[in-house]
Amino acid sequence: MDDIREILKGDTYMCGISGIFNLWTTSPVDKGLLQHLNRVQSHRGPDDEGYFINTNIGLAHRRLSIIDLSKGQQPIFNEDNSICVVFNGEIYNFESLVAELTNLGHHFSTHTDTEVIVHAWEEWGVRCLQRFRGMFAFALWDNNKHQLFIARDRLGKKPLFYTQTQTGQFVFGSELKVLLAHPEVDKSLRTEMAEEYFMFGYIPEPFSAYKNIFKLNPGHYLLIEPKTSVKQECYWDLPSPSSLLSWPDVQTELIERLNEAIRIRLLSDVPLGAFLSGGVDSSAIVALMAGLQNEPVNTCAIGFKENEYDETEYANQIAKRYQTNHLSQIVSSNDYNLIDKLSLAYDEPFADSSALPTYQVCQLASQSVKVSLSGDGGDEIFAGYRRQRMHLAEQRLRDKIPYSVRRPIFSSLASVYPKADWAPKPLRAKTTLQSLAMNSVEAYANTMSKLRIGQRRTLFSASYLRQLNGYTGLAIMQEHADKAPSDDPLKLIQYLDFKTWLPGDILTKVDRASMANSLEVRSPLLDHSLIEWAYAIKSTDNIRGNEGKYAFKKSLEPYVDSNILYRPKMGFSIPISEWFRGPLNATLKTTLLSDNMLDSGFFSPKVLKQMITDHTSGQSNHADALWCLLMFAKFMNRQ
After folding, report:
1. Which domains does the chain have, with CATH numbers?
2. CA 190 – CA 197 distance, rounded (Å)
3. Can you give the pTM of this predicted structure?
4. pLDDT digits (tens, 9 = 90+) for 74-95
5. pLDDT higher than 50, residue 11
6. Out of 15, 84, 300, 628, which one is annotated catalytic?
7. Cα 485–chain centre separation
8. Using CA of residue 582, residue 587, residue 593, residue 597, what is the dihedral sign?
9. 128 given a catalytic annotation
10. Closest CA to 178 of 143, 213, 154, 225
11. Secondary structure class of 85 (helix, strand, coil)
12. pLDDT for 103-141, tens place per residue?
């Protein structure tokens, strides 16, 4: 295959993959088209590009150099060039796999984790996925078997989109924009996508905004041969916690396991650091990193001029305690100029407003490092969200009152209780009353919804509601719930978070924000081995009274000061309510009331106008709903 192997180095300047596979014919792949698709995502890999073309298969790669800078160009092949791979991500246990595969007779020509994939495939086939520990999306061509093997990591840290054209071309890429750049890809919008977006705030796997474009589910793979259909197969799921961990075991093992998850993520041939927000999770990562390396940890944090959004005091406290090389920058919470840039980065509607400060901290980190560790996943794995505590409290009441009694009583109360956005949290009872009238899955879906089902029905046009024919995004939640490995109320909703919120919101937000700044982000708390172990922590050890992440915080007491561990959670916030009444008011009106929005058929124009009027006047606070609409309108106005 030497004569058909092509490695093309470009002069355009973390990684992105793409490819074309002619399923029905042996027609050659158009090299110019493949190059065009690949260069659409050049921001993901500014250091290099590479291609492999073998008649009806073409693979492409954009590279951000992290390991083996001189020899890590992709695609990478096995010894006789019969197997080729393009890879996005990191396999943290690759050195031990190299040793094992070398002993089995395989020969390595680079010191990269990418080359491990081709030899692991040769040795173990699809079972190689069970051996990999890390974050990844890769595509492997086996010329001997004429098979295309595509896989995504267990949690969905790295994205992978795919579609099939009417002429039988299977097209895939790391971002939606790659597929949309192909002239034959169907760009019709999916009918259900607006309902799902306004419920979740994103479009959950395996769907996208487009009818025939899909996301490869986390923990799944595709194995495709010529003239066959494309079918996803699952290779990993959260295991059933058959026996729960004792409290002494948790205290003994938690820090040990987290240390190991951090240690394997410290390998890099480029500058490496950590985000330090001043919250529990990032503080824990930095504290343990300091004990695992000889040199000071490189840390970065952004702060806000407004006290209600600023956590730099706590970030500085950790930085001082562990004598880190700390980079801190005060930014304005009113930096709404990033909205258009972020809307383009996410390709489809995405409503998490914390994407703005996430982009800012990635931008800051990229000034001094190419790799940064983050604290993402701590709230999911150790139950740190307020909504999880509220759900358990509600569930205890649901368990005491029969459904036949609860539903009519609490539904009636919820219908008359005002939506008191202005009131203190204890008095905002409408959502709680709604949830008490529901079963557990319905209730959690209601809690997680950006717009509750009643709000969506009011916002949507009569014609769109007829098209939905009763469909709601709850169907996605219920499908996952039916597969949950535990009926424990907390573990059930943690499972739902791992299947929807984590890949659809948190990991998507971080991937696009970091890739836009050519920064790789690693998440030790989302190490799958750590998660499998932590899922067996008793729910009563994760939430005690009103304290979330109890086991995690108790284990961290020797490493993180108590005023950080036990202070109220802040998170990244921006003042969108004030924006929409002030500097963004005119933009809001022109964007939401554009012809593309009003003619889309999704919305009631009267309701759109009234929401803007009521919010602008201060009569109501529709900030979250208007932000969702603004991001949706930005997307629609590009169609």
Report:
1. 2-234 (3.60.20.10), 247-383+497-565 (3.40.50.620), 575-639 (no CATH)
2. 11
3. 0.93
4. 899 999 999 999 999 999 999 9
5. no
6. 15
7. 22
8. negative
9. no
10. 213
11. strand
12. 999 999 988 899 999 999 999 999 999 999 999 999 999
